[in-house]
Amino acid sequence: MRRLRVLTGIVALALLPLTGLTQERIPIIFDTDFAMPPTDDGLTLMLALQSPELEILGITTVAGNESLERATADSLRMLEIANRTDIPVYIGADMPLVHEKSDFAVNTYGRWYSDEVVEPPGGFAKIEAQDESAVSFIVDAVMDRPGEVTILGIGPLTNIAQAIRAHPKFAENVKQIVIMGGAVALLPDGAGNITPNAEFNFWVDPEAAHVVLRSGIPIELSPLNVSRKSALDKAWYEKMVEVDTPLTQLLRDTLGKRFEADPDRTWYMYDQIALASLIDPSIVETEELYVDVNIDHGISYGVSVGGRNPWPGAEGAQKMNVQYDLDWPKFIEMFVERVTRPVPGD
Ligand SMILES: [Ca+2]
Question: Which alpha helices (H) appear in 112-233, and where do they start and end?
Answer without folding.
Answer: 134-144, 158-166, 170-173, 200-204, 206-213, 224-227
